[in-house]
Design brief:
Blueprint: E1 2-5, H1 14-21, H2 29-47, E2 54-60, E3 68-69, E4 75-84, E5 90-92, E6 98-101, E7 108-111, H3 118-122, E8 126-133, H4 144-160, H5 170-176
Antiparallel strand pairs: 1-2, 2-8, 3-7, 4-5, 4-8, 6-7
InterPro entries: Phage_CHP, Phage_gp6-like_head-tail, Phage_HK97_gp6-like
Organism: Iodidimonas nitroreducens
Protein name: Phage gp6-like head-tail connector protein
Length: 184
């Protein structure tokens, strides 16, 4: 899976972070911004989620018999489903040939039956799905406990000057755990 476009904004802004840390100068703005990106990415990795809208591409070799669960939640939309042929050419799969379920977690794509797609899973073709995941494109759309966990992670990075010791305190874990995607 590869990220085609990272989030355009972060779930917190520098003013919120600086107010929490009681920093009144601008000397550490770039450092705090880097801590924010690191904290968001760490939280997303732990959760299996995208917090702010992001464009991803998921590539795989064989379509499963049932629904294909996308590896990032929450799913906002599927932009394209592509068949990449053995010779390197690709073709878009008509959206009438599949169904997208974005209300489930994780979101999934299901091929509609009776459309002659069985040979695709047996060939050497591969598939790519371009999709948008995240709670939305505004920080306020990210659940408050996740935003607070990121704020605490940034504070821990700042206090420890970037080492990862104790960044995931019990409080941070308790804020993140209810949102963690568990794969069975």
């Amino acid at each position: 899976m590869s990220q085609l476009q990272p989030p355009l904004i972060e779930p917190l802004d520098l003013a919120e972070i600086k107010a929490h840390l009681r920093i009144e100068h601008d000397d550490e703005n770039s450092l705090l911004a880097s801590y924010l990106v690191a904290a968001r990415q760490m939280a997303e990795r732990i959760l299996g989620r995208a917090l702010i809208s992001q464009h991803w591409q998921y590539a795989f070799a064989r379509w499963p018999d049932g629904p294909l669960c996308l590896p990032k939640a929450p799913l906002q939309s599927v932009m394209a489903v592509r068949i990449v042929h053995e010779d390197g050419t690709s073709s878009l799969l008509d959206p009438d040939r599949y169904r997208v379920e974005s209300r489930a977690e994780p979101g999934f794509v299901l091929l509609k039956s009776g459309l002659g797609l069985v040979p695709l899973g047996l060939s050497r073709d591969r598939f790519e799905i371009d999709f948008i995941a995240g709670y939305g494109d505004q920080p306020a759309m990210v659940p408050a406990p996740l935003r607070h966990a990121i704020l605490l992670m940034v504070a821990a990075f700042h206090q420890s000057r970037g080492t990862t010791e104790n960044v995931l305190s019990g409080v941070v874990r308790s804020l993140l755990d209810p949102y963690r995607m568990v794969r069975l």
